[in-house]
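tool_call: predict_structure(chain=1)
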Amino acid sequence: MVDFRTLDDLPAEQRVLARLDLNSPVEDGRVQGNRRFDRHATTVAELADAGHRVALMAHQGRPGRDTFVSLERHAEILAEHAGVDVDFVPDTFGDEALAAVREIEGGDVLLLENVRMADDELPEKEPEEHAASEFVETLAPAFDAYVNDAYSAAHRKHASLVGFPLRLPSYAGRVMETEYEANTAIAEREFDGDVTMVVGGTKATDVIGVMEALDETVDTFCLGGVAGELFLRAAGYPVGTDVETDLFGEQWAENEDTVHEVLDERSEQIRLASDLAYEGDDGERVEAAVEDIDEKTRAFLDVGSETVATYDSIVRDSAAVFVKGALGVFEDERFSDGTVGVLRAIAETDCFSVVGGGDTSRAIGMYGLDEADFSHVSIAGGAYIRALTGEPLPAVELLERNAAGEFDG
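tool_result:
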């Protein structure tokens, strides 16, 4: 149950300022569409259909990076997904933006320029400081309500995320609502059976934090990716070192003691790979049993078929499965067996499931799986990790405090 207001609570005919997360890949200077547009389109269409006057905020990239571009293309993509016109305003909170906001009619939608082009946006500050910024103090009076739909950025203390709830009645959009409910389910719901977490990816520190936070909630952790190799190293196998990569050394130095501690204390909960896959001399997939590895001479790119079968069986016997990170380099079909095998087992099983963690959810579309076969596919990265580990999400906390009446607006 959420403790913030949603679109169901939004009064009629409001002038709404809504924050989305449309951050997208940029190839050859051109913004590419992704799952986020489709998700946020639900909120945008609902606001427009209800006759609200809607101005949207979003970010793209960071200053100094190639991905730091205008949102003009985002407006076109979002309009295609939402089925409504989305006018673009090349200004964030200056005279041009304010004039455009004043001219909005009921059902109209406009997208303001990249909020990270405003100097007040990016510094991590307390909400009270952001609420007093020129950005927030200039834009807030032009609106009746603020809607935050940017769950995937909810771990940030940026002006557009935490400043406006101190100035306006605030509500969660549909993405914020559904992401929050699904990603907190592991800590807040009770399941009639075993809870399994599949953890992989390249960020071992994240995985270890999740395992420590959820040790009393999760029955079985199935490991792969970089974290899986580091745990195998802690178990005494000659893997988890840098060969053709620079992913292991620094993370091992940072987490060695914790990995040993977690493995010692939770050995009954942890399932490690029994075999690993690598690229052979002829470019083919080659598998090696962990017990037979004397020295790591090539980068391991996936878990092996025996491990896939073991994890498949565990998943199919689970009441709930949460996925954080890929078990291998699934972008290469040769090394997709682990990631796709687990996802396929989840899709074919009547269990509660949440798939998240960076790019892992992309494998669903890449390999012809149906997103409808999963309870929830998260578009969040950092916020998903925070939810799993129980760390606070500042933007969510501000919605809750706003609903509780802490701010006068």
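agent: The mean pLDDT is 94. Proceeding to next step.
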